[in-house]
Amino acid sequence: MIDILYLSPHLDDVVLSCGGTLHRQSLQRKRVVILTVCAGEPPAGELSAFAQSLHVRWEASAQQSAANMVALRKEEDTQASALLKAEAIYLDLQDCIYRRDRNASAAWMYESDEAIFGDLHSGDAGHIQDIASRLEELEMGSQTQIVVPLAVGQHVDHQLIRLAAEQWAAQNDGKLQYYEDFPYAEREGRLNEVLQPADNWEPKLQVLDEADLAARVAAITLYTSQLSTFWPDTEAMRQAVHDYAWRRGSFDTLAERFWKIVRT
User: Fold this and answer.
1) pLDDT at site 40
2) How far apart are CA 91 and CA 42, in angstroms?
3) Which of 217, 169, 166 minimizes the C-alpha distance to 19?
4) Residues 166-209: pLDDT tens digits?
5) Alpha-carbon gap, residue 127 to 227, rounded angstroms
6) For the chain, which end, N or C, has fewer CB atoms within 10 Å of the first or last residue's CB respectively?
C-alpha cells in the first residue's frame, strides 16, 4: 500500500518543490511514490519551433531526437527519486510542448512561454478525467496521503494535474495536500494568486534539518538538463533552495510548506 503519493506534472517538479520532505519520510520507512503524469513519448516528426528552442536550452545536441530527450529526462528523474528513496511511476501523457489539439486541426496547443503559463487549452479538457481515472489503478487505501501541486505560476500542466486530482478527490471523497511549486513560488505574489479565498487555506510546515535539505539539493543536481532553465549554476540553485526553506521556516529553522483546504 502506498503511504504517500506525490503527483508531479513533469520529470522534476516534486523533487524541486519538496525533496527535503521526501528524504525525511524515507527515514521513517514510508512507502513514498512519485507519479509523474507528463512523461509520455513525444510525437514522431518535427516538433514545433517552441519545443525545439526548449531542447536547445536543455543543451540537447542538434542530433538529439525528441524521444531521446524525454528518455534522458526520465533517467535524471529515476536517479533523483532513487536518491530520495522514492518509487517513480510514469504515465504516458505528453508534456504540453508536445501536445497537439485532438479536437481541431492537430495544431500545436502551446507554442510560447505565454501559452504554457496561461489558460488551459480546450483540447486538454478530456485529459482531466483520464488522469483521475488512472489514479484509481494505484495501490491506495484510506490512509494514503495524496500531495499535489498548487499550480503556483499557472503552468498549464500544473493546472491540469491539480484539476485532475481535485476531480478524483471529489469522486472518491478524498483529501488532498498541496505543495508549493518551486521555484515559481519564490515570488510571493504568485503564491497568493492561487491561495484564494485566503481564509479557505491552512498551512502545514514540515521542519527539515540540514541533511534533508542537502539531499534535496543533491537530487535536484541530477536534473542536469533542467538546471539552466532556472539558475545560472549549481551554487545559485543551492542558495535559492536554502533561502526559500529558511524563509518558510520563518528564519528560525529550515522547512517546506504544504497547504490544505479547510473550507469550501
Assistant:
1) 96
2) 13
3) 217
4) 999 999 988 999 999 999 999 888 999 999 999 999 999 999 99
5) 28
6) C
pLDDT digits (tens, 9 = 90+) for 117-140: 999 999 999 999 999 999 999 999
* CA–CA dist 62, 3 (Å, integer): 42
Q: Residue 59: is its pLDDT beyond 80? A: no
Q: Which residue has the cell 518543490?
A: 17
Instruction: Find where cell 524515507 sits.
Output: 26
* The CATH number of domain 4-261, selected from 3.40.50.10320, 2.60.40.10, 3.40.50.720, 3.30.930.10: 3.40.50.10320
| Distance spanning both ends of the chain, measured CA to CA | 30
- Cα 231 from Cα 51, distance rounded (Å): 20
Dihedral sign of CA atoms 4, 9, 10, 16 in order: negative
User: What backbone torsions phi and psi does residue 30 show, to the nearest 5 degrees?
Assistant: -80, 150
Go through 47-57 and write b for each residue having 16 or more CB atoms within 10 A of its CB, e for each that does not. Answer: bbeebeebbee
pTM of the shown model: 0.95
Q: How far is CA 200 from the centre of its chain?
A: 23
